[in-house]
Amino acid sequence: MDQAIGAALRDLREDRDLSARQLASDADVSAAMISRIENGQVSPSITMLNALAKALNVPMVSLFRETA
Fold first, then answer.
1. DSSP characters for 11-68?
2. 33 HSE (CA, 13 A, CB side)
3. Would you tell me which of 12, 37, 44, 60 could form a disulfide with 53, CB atoms 3.0–4.6 Å apart?
């Protein structure tokens, strides 16, 4: 599931032409954490997923689109 969330995050970020650093700043997390999430190395908390979804201006469920 971590890989699927990471892939969805990367796709959404790239669709908006945001760098990992820009998204990190908007979501108030580190750029390294964005990289680790996108590469499936960590499981983001619900709080972090919510912050990322808000920064991307999408519903949080969008980050789970490939997990079913």
1. HHHHHTT--HHHHHHHHTS-HHHHHHHHTT-S---HHHHHHHHHHHTS-GGGGGTT--
2. 15
3. 60
- Residue 6 in 3-state DSSP? helix
* 8-37 per-position pLDDT tens digit: 999 999 999 999 999 999 999 999 999 999
Distance from the first to the final alpha carbon of the chain: 9
The answer to whether 34 and 23 are in contact (CB under 8 A) is yes
Half-sphere exposure of 43 (CA within 13 A, CB side): 2
